[in-house]
Amino acid sequence: MDKIRLLQQRKQNLLEVGKKVRQDISALIDDKSFVELSAFSFSKNDFYGTDEQGEGVVTGYATINGFPFYIVAQNYEILSGGVSKANCAKISRCLDEAEKTSTPVIYLLASQGVQVGEGLGVMEGLSSIILKASRLKGTVNQYLIVNGEVYGFLSVLSAICDFTYFIDKKSVLASSSPFVISAKSGKNLSKFEVGGENGIKNANLVSFSVKSLKKIKKSILSINELLSERITDCGDLNSAIPELDKKTDYKTLLKIFDKGSVTEVGNSFSPEIKCLLGRIGGIAVAVTVFDGDNIFLNSHNVRKIRDFIEFVCCYSLPYITFSNVLGIVPDMATNNSFVLKEIADYVSIFDCIDTAKISVIYKKAIGAGYSLFASKSIGFDYTFAFANAEISLFDSEQGVEIEFSDEKADKQKLAERYFNEKADPINSAKYGYVDNIIQPSLVRQYLISSLQMLLKRG
After folding, report:
1. Please, what's the largest Cα pairwise distance for the chain?
2. How many whole angstroms separate alpha carbon 15 and alpha carbon 17?
3. Which of 49, 142, 194, 322 is the Cys-Cys partner for 289 at CB 3.0 to 4.6 Å?
4. Which residues contact 410 (CB under 8 A, 6 or more apart)?
5. Bridge partners of residue 43, in order along the sequence
6. DSSP secondary-structure letter at 54?
7. Nearest to 362 by CA among 204, 248, 194
8. Can you tell me whether residue 450 is helix, strand or coil?
9. How far apart are the first and last CA of the chain?
């Protein structure tokens, strides 16, 4: 028997049964850089009475622009990507190698759940994957691509991975079959209405919504470069942003970042909170911006900030927040929610950040909003305020009712008086609560200077 010819035939068989998933892998990586692991792993499925080569999953390693990654890609063409115990063992081996070498992992998932006939063995295998992925968190970056339909317990990976990508008109994620969920809810919904990006918009699981794998490749490369090379050269260190003196909106604030370096994460969930990764003066940073007017805290937006802070803590990134927040929503629904627990978790994780923590009060920091996102006592190294910012125990309207309740002057005039007497940032600065009151156009220079001073050396 010609063993070489037999090997070539076996390889060809593998390529045929995994043609589509291998094309997807190729769309993400450097040309011909993929090296497959456990290529000839397969087992008997007694229920279907078939041998399925490759276990319905392709694993290996490759490079993207020279950076190494481990790849786990489910092959939907084999039993609808059904998960088996052997399938789980193959994934686990790949994660073990990633842990040994501290190499990032990319998952391309497409599965309608476990294979029928596997029994509890497959649940043991899934538990092993979930635990291994959880242990990798904060050690290596994990990127999950919902490359079709992903149902069942494996969907938990989307909550563990650092970044989860949804592909437009393709990705569906659900803890059970969408049709079961729809029926149990007494509705007749499509799979996209249940598990598409809009269907799970309150779950805070979608980091990025993209059109194609090509866009994902660019995004992964950008994030990986940011986390791998914390400091790069930046010649433009002293430029001002004149527009900020006239208009302090979110779009203008983005000019604090080095050109072309900023990426927003999770824009579909609590969109009033912008979570950003980028560079300021060549230094990799994580930034949150409270975007809008009269922003109150609730369990959703605090959770979004808390999750982002956890990522910041895991990867030791300097953290900057642009505060414009009034405190906790004063209503029954919020009072009867997880908002206080979420705030407690945020404080606990924020305290673990061992890098620079900088607050810029660019509009308002009122009550609990000041305590959580601007105060020195909560842990901020530096707190700056724009000259026209408002810092106080109450916002102007509530402050007027409390401070000037006996006075009968026009409410608008009283509000102006409250701002000048009580909420002017100079009042906070004179007690040392604010390090400096700054001209908005100079904020980038202040941030670069502060980041350079707070960088850990040697």
Report:
1. 103
2. 6
3. 322
4. none
5. 52
6. G
7. 248
8. helix
9. 61
Inter-residue contact 18 to 75 (CB < 8 Å): yes
Burial zone of 334 (CB within 10 Å; 0-12 exposed, 13-18 middle, 19+ buried) = middle
| 34-81: pLDDT as tens digits | 998 865 555 444 444 444 454 578 899 999 999 999 999 988 777 656
For residue 258, with 0-12 CB atoms within 10 Å meaning exposed, 13-18 middle and 19 or more buried, which class applies? buried
Q: From the DSSP assignment, how many helices (H) and strands (E) are in the chain?
A: 17, 18
Residue with tokens 């309150």: 202
Looking from the CA of 132 toward its CB, the CA atoms found within 13 Å total 21
Write out the two tokens for 417. Answer: 């008086």
Looking at every residue in the chain, the average pLDDT score rounds to: 86
Residues 148 and 300: their CA atoms lie apart, in Å, by 27
Q: Are 321 and 373 in contact (CB under 8 A)?
A: yes
pLDDT tens digits, 206-241: 999 999 999 999 999 999 999 988 898 887 788 899
Separation CA 456–CA 354 (nearest Å): 9
Query: Which pLDDT score, from 0 to 100, does residue 116 have?
Result: 62
What is the C-alpha separation between 223 and 216, in angstroms, rounded? 11
Q: pLDDT digits over 139-150, tens only?
A: 899 999 999 999
* 215 torsion bin: left (phi>0), alpha (psi -120 to 50), beta (else): alpha
Taking the C-alpha atoms of residue 441 and residue 425, their distance in angstroms, rounded to an integer, is 17
User: E strand or H helix at 183, and its extent?
Assistant: helix 178-184
- Say what the pTM is: 0.87
| CA angle, 215 then 216 then 219, to 5° | 90
**What DSSP letter does each residue of 191-245 carry, written as one string?**
HHHHHSTTTTTTS---SEEES-HHHHHHHHHHHHHHHH-SB---S--S---GGGG
d(CA 370, CA 124): 46
Measured in degrees and rounded to the nearest 5, phi and psi for residue 72 equal -125, 115
Residue showing tokens 């509009």? 363
Q: Are strands 142-151 and 57-64 parallel, antiparallel or unpaired?
A: unpaired
